[in-house]
Structures are given as structure tokens and as C-alpha cells.
Amino acid sequence: MEKIIVRGGRQLSGTVRVEGAKNAVLPVIAASILASKGKSHIYDVPALADVYTINQVLRTLNTDVTYDGKGHIEVDAEKELAIEAPFEYVRKMRASFLVMGPLLARVGHARIALPGGCAIGSRPIDQHLKGFEAMGAKVEIGNGFIEAKVDDRLHGNKIYMDFPSVGATENIMMAATTALGTTIIENAAEEPEIVCLANYLNAMGAKVRGAGTGTIRIDGVDELVGAEHTIIPDRIEAGTFMVAAAISRGNVLVENVLTEHLRPLIAKMSEMGVIIIEEDNGVRVIGPEKLKAVDIKTMPHPGFPTDMQSQMMALMLNAEGTSVVTETVFENRFMHVEEFRRMNGNIKIEGRAAIINGPMKLQGAEVASTDLRAGAALVLTGLVADGYTRVTELKHIDRGYVNFADKLRALGADIERVNEEEKVEIENLEAPAPLKLDPNFAS
Ligand SMILES: CC(=O)N[C@H]1[C@@H](OP(=O)(O)OP(=O)(O)OC[C@H]2O[C@@H](n3ccc(=O)[nH]c3=O)[C@H](O)[C@@H]2O)O[C@H](CO)[C@@H](O)[C@@H]1O
Ligand SMILES: C=C(OP(=O)(O)O)C(=O)O
């Protein structure tokens, strides 16, 4: 079994470069099958397990996908598309469901395995389906699949989302690109990843306006063609390294960031006393001697992102005073609390709130990633815990972070990724094991 082993106590310094955003690249790759003519070229693609999974989904749909593993994907979706995405891929990564909108737009028929629940919550897809049905699709659920069909072509409609779901906004937006007439999505998600997707769709010939606001208008066109597109930087990976700098009382330049995407995080970390300097090529983060307690409440963008909740909790364990974290987006995103407790983290859960009375003397322990951000948060905690922290279940971390341990080591962390079977001399850490992607895990 692979583990990340980290020994606390090193102050991080230097520069780290952020990759293209996981949550932007997955819908963009899904959208590439909308092009019935021409190839798409997508740049700044991170070499993540999730990217390999979505590429496999596309190949199952009879699309040619070439990924060089270094940032560039070419997609050729000119052939007739198949319509079924099997459970094998959807269980690994829920974002596989994002091919439903493009398939309905292009073929009028899709059969996708039901995503099911996952560690952070039940994550229903009712808002996606409500949108497709409003556009004329007939949806049936049976035998573990969701099948949607359109008689002729989807038609535009006004769709009000009960909650600004990121995935549903993306799926409906993609479906609407070639619908007859105009689709208006109200109470749409406003995340930067939605804007990234809309820019790609427009480069393909779509007419999407208002992405990044609560109302998105899509005027249907007859056909989309392949296009070139560069993925935005990953604001969550950036945030994770910002916390790494702060928690270790270090001084790190996080490069390739768009600070306008980091506003809620910059605000909260500054309140904690972290020094954050916006430079031309990135954001410099300097950890103070003493961190101050702060409260956060996760919300849809531009609120505080749920994907940074566990990493911020790691920081709060080290802050003086009482911090309260309220998780409003996912009903079960406190799985990491149990693991923090194994490291002497004193956290009380009351309903959707976690109460942290810091600072506490954190101790290294063997802990398991419960989801990808929880895994990252445990590694961050290990940076300051006494002794060795061993983080297992790395398949989660690999979904969202490229070479996480290597990047931290380059900043001065005492960290290694090892196979349990290997007898590693901790005091004398060697080159990391190469990234091995487990093809059989479930997200
Ligand atoms: C690949 C990707 O981009 N993943 C991100 C995306 O996930 P994802 O797109 O799955 O998240 P959503 O915004 O859809 O989900 C937010 C909330 O809405 C609920 N919901 C969602 C859809 C639906 O049809 N019905 C429903 O009730 C979910 O259960 C959840 O409680 O946004 C989340 C919220 O910022 C992030 O944590 C994920 O990292
Ligand atoms: C929850 C996340 O991703 P996904 O929606 O792909 O599970 C995440 O990126 O933190």
C-alpha cells in the first residue's frame, strides 16, 4: 500500500507552480464531444487520475483522445458517437456524468450509469435531470442506468435551479448549446470553472452569455466545431499550497494563480494573520508566528469554497482561540475530523458545524484520506505535527493533485511517498515512487 510519510517541523520556502484546474478541465473534456467537425486542442491539462478517467469515458463513446501527459489533449469526436458511459468509470469519478448534456445535444440519446453516493454526501442529480426534461428529454432510471432520449432536438427553456449546482449548470449549459431556441438558466452556479467552460463552448461556436453570474443565456446554434482552449489555474490546488506555506510559518510564492478566484480564501487567511502579497506572477504567502482563530461557512461561489474546508480546518488547529467551520454545501463533509482526532486534534461537531479550540499540540499518526481534499489536509497537518504522519488511501489525493508530495518536498518539506512493503530509511529520504494510478478505486 502506498503512503505519504511526512515529518513535521520544516518551514516551507521557494516557489510552486499551480496546474490547470481539475474542476475546469473535466467539463471541458466532456464538452469536446459536442464538436461534430474539427479537432479540439486543450492546454494546461493536469496529469490527474480524473483526467485519465474522463479520457477513458470519451474513448468508450467512440472519440479519439490523445493526451501527452504534459498538458496537451487533442480530441477528435467526428465519428458517430456511442451513447453509453458504464459504471466502471462513473463510480470512479462522478464528473463522468457530465457527458450526458453533450450526448443529448449531439445524438439525442444517452445512457449513463447512476453515479450513486460518495463519502462527502449523497450528491443527487435531480437538478441535471430537471433541466434535461425541461428541454424536452424523456428520462428513465432502471438497472443502475439513467437513460435520456429526445424525439428530435432539445428545445430551449427557462430553467430555475433549486440550488446553484456546479455540475447541473455545466450539464444544462452544454445540452443547450445546440437546442432549438434560447435556454435561460436562473440561479446558475457562478464558479470560475463555469466561465472557463463557457469560453470553450463559445470558441466552438456556441452562444453562451452571462456565465459567472446567476443568469446564463444560451442561444442554440446548429453545430459546434473543435477549438483551442487553455484551462484556468486550479484555485483549490493554489489554496492548498497557500495553507501549506501558512501552517509551516513559511514563505512561499504560489505561481500561476488568478487572485480574483481566490478572494474568499485570501480574506479568511488574512483575518488569521497570514501575510498575503499579490505579485505579478503569483501570490506570496508568509505564515505568521501566531495564527488567529476565524469562522468560515462554505457557500457556492463567491462564498468560501467547500473544497478548501478541510485544509482551512488544518490551519485552524494551529490558531489561537475558537474557530467555527460551518459546512452548508455537502451534508457529510467532516469525515476528516475523525482523522484529525487521531493526530490529537480537538474538534467538536455540532450538526453542520465543527468547533475547534486551538492551538493544539498535534502528533503524527497513521491516518487515511477520506476524500481528496481531506487527504491533502492531513498531509498539511503532518507538516507541523510532532514526529511522523503516515497518510494512506492516496488514490483520493491523486484525483486532484499532481505530484503533491514532490511539490511539497521541493519547498523543503520532509516528505516521501513510499510503498509500505519498501523499508524506507526515513532519515535519508530518496527519490519518490512514480505516480501509480489505481484503475479500480471508487471516488
Ligand atoms: C468536478 C467538480 O467540478 N466538482 C465540484 C463540483 O461538484 P458538483 O458539481 O457535484 O457539486 P454541486 O454544485 O452539483 O453540488 C452542490 C450541492 O448540491 C447538491 N445537488 C447537486 C446537484 C443536483 O442535481 N442536486 C443536488 O441536490 C449536492 O448534493 C451538493 O450538496 O462542485 C462542488 C461544489 O462547489 C465541488 O465541491 C466539487 O469539487
Ligand atoms: C469534491 C471534489 O471533487 P468531485 O466533485 O470530483 O468529487 C473536489 O474536488 O474536492
From TrEMBL:
<dbReference type="InterPro" id="IPR050068">
    <property type="entry name" value="MurA_subfamily"/>
</dbReference>
<dbReference type="InterPro" id="IPR036968">
    <property type="entry name" value="Enolpyruvate_Tfrase_sf"/>
</dbReference>
<dbReference type="GO" id="GO:0008360">
    <property type="term" value="P:regulation of cell shape"/>
</dbReference>
<feature type="binding site">
    <location>
        <position position="94"/>
    </location>
    <ligand>
        <name>UDP-N-acetyl-alpha-D-glucosamine</name>
    </ligand>
</feature>
<dbReference type="InterPro" id="IPR005750">
    <property type="entry name" value="UDP_GlcNAc_COvinyl_MurA"/>
</dbReference>
<comment type="pathway">
    <text>Cell wall biogenesis; peptidoglycan biosynthesis.</text>
</comment>
<dbReference type="GO" id="GO:0071555">
    <property type="term" value="P:cell wall organization"/>
</dbReference>
<dbReference type="GO" id="GO:0051301">
    <property type="term" value="P:cell division"/>
</dbReference>
<keyword id="KW-0131">Cell cycle</keyword>
<feature type="binding site">
    <location>
        <position position="329"/>
    </location>
    <ligand>
        <name>UDP-N-acetyl-alpha-D-glucosamine</name>
    </ligand>
</feature>
<dbReference type="GO" id="GO:0019277">
    <property type="term" value="P:UDP-N-acetylgalactosamine biosynthetic process"/>
</dbReference>
<dbReference type="GO" id="GO:0009252">
    <property type="term" value="P:peptidoglycan biosynthetic process"/>
</dbReference>
<keyword id="KW-0132">Cell division</keyword>
<keyword id="KW-0963">Cytoplasm</keyword>
<dbReference type="GO" id="GO:0008760">
    <property type="term" value="F:UDP-N-acetylglucosamine 1-carboxyvinyltransferase activity"/>
</dbReference>
<feature type="binding site">
    <location>
        <position position="307"/>
    </location>
    <ligand>
        <name>UDP-N-acetyl-alpha-D-glucosamine</name>
    </ligand>
</feature>
<keyword id="KW-0961">Cell wall biogenesis/degradation</keyword>
<keyword id="KW-0808">Transferase</keyword>
<feature type="binding site">
    <location>
        <begin position="123"/>
        <end position="127"/>
    </location>
    <ligand>
        <name>UDP-N-acetyl-alpha-D-glucosamine</name>
    </ligand>
</feature>
<comment type="similarity">
    <text>Belongs to the EPSP synthase family. MurA subfamily.</text>
</comment>
<dbReference type="Pfam" id="PF00275">
    <property type="entry name" value="EPSP_synthase"/>
</dbReference>
<feature type="modified residue" description="2-(S-cysteinyl)pyruvic acid O-phosphothioketal">
    <location>
        <position position="118"/>
    </location>
</feature>
<keyword id="KW-0133">Cell shape</keyword>
<protein>
    <recommendedName>
        <fullName>UDP-N-acetylglucosamine 1-carboxyvinyltransferase</fullName>
        <ecNumber>2.5.1.7</ecNumber>
    </recommendedName>
</protein>
<feature type="domain" description="Enolpyruvate transferase">
    <location>
        <begin position="6"/>
        <end position="408"/>
    </location>
</feature>
<feature type="binding site">
    <location>
        <begin position="22"/>
        <end position="23"/>
    </location>
    <ligand>
        <name>phosphoenolpyruvate</name>
    </ligand>
</feature>
<keyword id="KW-0670">Pyruvate</keyword>
<dbReference type="InterPro" id="IPR013792">
    <property type="entry name" value="RNA3'P_cycl/enolpyr_Trfase_a/b"/>
</dbReference>
<dbReference type="GO" id="GO:0005737">
    <property type="term" value="C:cytoplasm"/>
</dbReference>
<dbReference type="InterPro" id="IPR001986">
    <property type="entry name" value="Enolpyruvate_Tfrase_dom"/>
</dbReference>
<keyword id="KW-0573">Peptidoglycan synthesis</keyword>
<feature type="active site" description="Proton donor">
    <location>
        <position position="118"/>
    </location>
</feature>
<comment type="function">
    <text>Cell wall formation. Adds enolpyruvyl to UDP-N-acetylglucosamine.</text>
</comment>
